[in-house]
Specification:
Helix content is about 30%, strand content about 25%. Strands 5-4-3-6-7-9-8 form a seven-stranded mixed β-sheet, sandwiched between helices. It has a two-stranded antiparallel ribbon with strand order 1-2. It is globular and about 50 Å long.
């Protein structure tokens, strides 16, 4: 994995290229985020400013459908996280993490590999009057998984390899006693047979990014591993 180099004034860059607004007017207004109206132009600007032509997409500059649905569910069902240790995996803007704090989580740890996303998440936490931390990098191959009572994942099943790593991580976290919740708008690589549906929302999205005005987005809970059926031995 290529390390991502921080920008000299990342917080200033985020402020200069975004606007502070509700995460989703009419759907989720309890959280405000620094959002970009033209994500692809921002991606080009990120590459230009960093001097790299392989800078990661600015996932932190959008409230993606999976994260919006998961944040909505957590805010509407605070008992999911209240008083618990929460890990927000692939945090991006920090939307889901902020929602978890607002819903009463004891602590919220975020995992994110893009330093610019971490700066955006810090700014978003300040804008919402909450505290996030500690911060972890790439934990997907950590064994055992970091301690958490609840693991939240917004929209991370968009690529085959990433999806496999996320699922394996969630299984390890589950083995340590964690509950795993995923927000997903029908991405190709979500293994639906591994999950139980909790709620479905019609989430407003940017047509530029999703080629639609709304996405049917489901919040899923990782199901228990199926028990192996013991082989039947014929003792006759």
């Amino acid at each position: 994995m290529i390390p991502v180099t921080p920008l000299p004034d990342a917080a200033g860059f985020v402020r200069a290229h975004t606007r502070l607004a509700p995460a989703s007017p009419g759907f989720l207004t309890e959280v405000r985020l620094h959002l970009a109206d033209r994500v692809f132009e921002l991606w080009e600007e990120t590459e230009s400013t960093s001097g790299r032509n392989d800078a990661p997409p600015p996932f932190w500059a959008q409230a993606w459908a999976g994260g919006l649905a998961l944040a909505r569910y957590v805010l509407d069902h605070p008992e999911t996280v209240a008083g618990r240790r929460v890990l927000d995996l692939a945090s991006g803007s920090g939307l889901v993490a902020v929602a978890a704090v607002k819903a009463g989580a004891a602590t919220v740890t975020i995992s994110e590999i893009d330093p610019l996303a971490l700066d955006a998440a810090a700014l978003n936490a300040d804008a919402n009057g909450v505290t996030l931390g500690p911060v972890l990098g790439d934990v997907l191959d950590a064994d055992p998984a970091p301690d958490a009572d609840v693991v939240l994942v917004g929209d991370a099943f968009y690529e085959r390899t990433m999806a496999a790593r996320v699922l394996a991580f969630l299984r390890r976290a589950q083995e340590r006693g964690a509950t795993a919740l995923v927000g997903d708008p029908g991405r190709t690589y979500l293994p639906r047979t591994e999950f139980d549906a909790l709620a479905t929302y019609a989430v407003p999205v940017q047509r530029e990014l999703e080629d639609a005005e709304t996405k049917q987005t489901t919040v899923w809970k990782l199901g228990a591993r199926p028990l192996l059926t013991p082989a039947v031995v014929d003792a006759t």
